[in-house]
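Researcher: Let's do a round of design. I'm pasting the structure tokens now; please hold your answer until I've finished.
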């Protein structure tokens, strides 16, 4: 049976490395770890698993660091993981047959990226509800999957390419070797990290993306990758649009670049132009639920409600499990002239995932547009009970709707609760004073009694 090595690069990974290495126990014959400058107990933890650890200086190049680790591997096959990943237990039985197969030089592996909201995406792929039995994964509501070559033969011709978003896949294909598809999972928890860690990664990927483009100016994928960082991590919408447009120019068949060019235009409120980009994305292989949904959003913002509803219908057929798409379809249908059916869709979406704030907001918006102010106020109040940590603005909105409906007492009661949750919020304090004066002395007495310890 061929041997297999785990190859890793790490830095300050003490919080997650132990679980990662435990997950490969009994699967790999050797563990090779290159440390790029840890100041915590990362190397000690690696030593507990009998890993061979070496130190290298960080040179702003992920591929170079991974290739330094590859140079130290003796086994016939290489599995690579990051410290915030865990190998699925099912891989223990699957991998031996894969590495015994002589036909393939490497395997695409599905990576399950856990996210903290079902509204999260990776590229244009929406989150799926989490059904994982893995204990570490259970706290997360959803995940998004992607593939990467993570298991491959040790061969001098196979090495990592790309300063960032590095991979061996292009080398395997360039050598005329075959890639297979593995049936096991890798579980990735890095997207659910703390905000400081995510911000640090974003800055690093931004810097490396610029260096990668300087080295590979005609590489469409490099421009696309930097565009994503500019858009989602740095908030530079105009710069992101330039990078996506350059990717489309270099490779007009790169459908995902057309899609994100449309997303950037949406964030710049250039909806008509965005629609044309979404059409180009569909023509070039991205006829996905996300493309239809975003086209629906563009039509909705242009007040083209029938066209928006048709787009959401198409998205729903591709992604029937999405409450967000269902609620958008409901709102567009309502504005297009079908209020009863539209409201039913929005309410059904809320019943499926009641803790998602946007679903409640669409119901409030729909009822307000129908001039059903008491119902809209009740819906806004229900959001306060259903979602985790409602904001000060959520309390203000519910109270405003009650005041417009003429129920100042209920408005004052909600504002009173809101101020107890957000005692430093000046808007809540001012609005509560106004509501008390409108509600009358009796209400004020009841509120003052509630405020007593």
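Researcher: That's everything. Go ahead.
Model: Designed sequence:
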């Amino acid at each position: 049976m061929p041997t297999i090595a785990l190859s890793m690069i790490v830095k300050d990974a003490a919080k997650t490395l132990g679980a990662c290495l435990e997950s490969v126990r009994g699967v790999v014959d050797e563990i090779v770890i290159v440390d790029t400058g840890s100041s915590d107990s990362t190397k000690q933890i690696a030593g507990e698993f009998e890993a061979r650890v070496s130190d290298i200086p960080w040179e702003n190049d992920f591929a170079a660091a991974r290739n330094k680790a590859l140079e130290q591997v003796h086994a016939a096959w290489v599995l690579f993981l990051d410290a915030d990943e865990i190998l699925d237990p099912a891989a223990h039985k699957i991998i031996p047959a894969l590495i015994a197969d002589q036909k393939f030089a490497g395997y695409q592996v599905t990576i399950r990226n856990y996210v903290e909201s079902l509204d999260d995406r990776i590229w244009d792929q929406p989150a799926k509800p989490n059904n994982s039995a893995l204990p570490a994964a259970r706290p997360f509501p959803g995940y998004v999957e992607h593939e990467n070559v993570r298991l491959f033969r040790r061969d001098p011709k196979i090495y990592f390419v790309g300063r960032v978003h590095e991979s061996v896949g292009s080398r395997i294909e360039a050598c005329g070797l075959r890639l297979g598809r593995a049936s096991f999972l890798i579980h990735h928890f890095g997207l659910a990290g703390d905000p400081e860690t995510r911000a640090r990664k974003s800055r690093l990927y931004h810097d490396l993306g610029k260096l990668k483009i300087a080295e590979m100016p005609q590489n469409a994928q490099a421009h696309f990758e930097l565009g994503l960082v500019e858009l989602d991590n740095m908030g530079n919408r105009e710069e992101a649009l330039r990078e996506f447009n350059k990717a489309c120019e270099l490779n007009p068949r790169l459908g995902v670049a057309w899609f994100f060019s449309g997303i950037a235009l949406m964030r710049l409120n250039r909806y008509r132009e965005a629609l044309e980009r979404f059409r180009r994305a569909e023509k070039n292989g991205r006829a996905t639920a996300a493309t239809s949904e975003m086209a629906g959003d563009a039509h909705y913002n242009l007040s083209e409600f029938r066209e928006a509803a048709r787009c959401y219908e198409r998205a729903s057929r591709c992604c029937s499990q999405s409450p967000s798409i269902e609620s958008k379809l409901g709102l567009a249908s309502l504005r297009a002239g079908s209020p009863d059916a539209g409201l039913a869709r929005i309410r059904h979406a809320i019943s499926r995932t009641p803790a998602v704030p946007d679903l409640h907001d669409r119901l409030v918006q729909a009822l307000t547009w129908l001039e059903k102010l008491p119902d809209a106020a009740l819906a806004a109040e229900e959001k306060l009970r259903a979602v985790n940590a409602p904001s000060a603005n959520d309390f203000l909105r519910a109270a405003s709707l009650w005041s417009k409906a003429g129920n100042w007492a209920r408005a004052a009661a909600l504002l009173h609760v809101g101020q107890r949750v957000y005692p430093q919020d000046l808007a809540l304090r001012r609005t509560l004073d106004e509501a008390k004066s409108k509600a009358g002395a009796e209400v004020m007495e009841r509120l003052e009694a509630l405020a007593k310890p």
